[in-house]
Task: structure prediction
Amino acid sequence: MRGVPLSLRTGAVVTATALAGGCFASPPSTDAGTVAASRTPTPVAAPAPDVTRLDMAELRKLLLDGKVTSAELVRAYLERIEAYETKYRDEPGINAVIKVNEHAGAEAARLDAERRAGRVRGPLHGIPIMVKDNFDTRDMPTTSGSEALRRLRPPDDAEQVLRLRAAGAIVLAKTNMHEFAMNIYTISSLGGQTRNAHEEKLRQAEILRDRLTGLMREHRLDAIVYPSISEPPTEIGTEQSYLNCRLAAYSGFPALSVPAGFTEGGLPVGVELLGRPFSEPDLLGMAYAYERATHHRKVPESTPPL
Result:
């Protein structure tokens, strides 16, 4: 309800004519037309639900259990769009939405009313969704990301959108796309460049890859060797440390773990070989040679040959 004057949203400002009806206590005034503020507390909207980790099934259950309304869900998603779509803090903004459906709130209210009356259209009743901007929508332009089609308004919904709405879905917005779907980079003349919300993590991974590549090149290394797990494994039923080396996961470089012997307690340990991108054949050769040279792989005593 942004942009609507407070007086129209809350009803907190009334005329003297209304006050004369005895509903409110009016302060003394010499002008019968004076506008007076109600002493009734201004309603406070419930906080928007945290929708960041909720999937479709969880949203549906919350709606079925009456723990949230469709209007609240729409408000929560719109607040996230407003918060993160354009530049915020030191981030450039996601820029993933071309057009927000200005009727989404009203549609949510209608679907909430239907649910209260006992009518549920389908499994998506009252759940907000977004559709790519090359699916026709009767209530919003469909541009395929092109500035030239900015005002193109289809007369009806695409079949997919029609079925989604028949199942009760609320089309919250149209999302950006690579113009006319002619590439994969999500750049369009109308929507601009959509950015990755995980971009900072991607930058960190790129820095790690550059440093690993530089280290291996400087020291003429074919692979880096380190323990698969930095602490000895624990027995079943006791808590594991999970302090394994994360170089491969964080960098995306190929890695291979091979047997490296046993602890004093007889539990197996391993070492991991991490190579440069696309060095899998070399890693497999090194792992095979290591196993043949060390003979660390042994048949467990509890499962002897038959």
Notes: The chain has a mean pLDDT of 83.
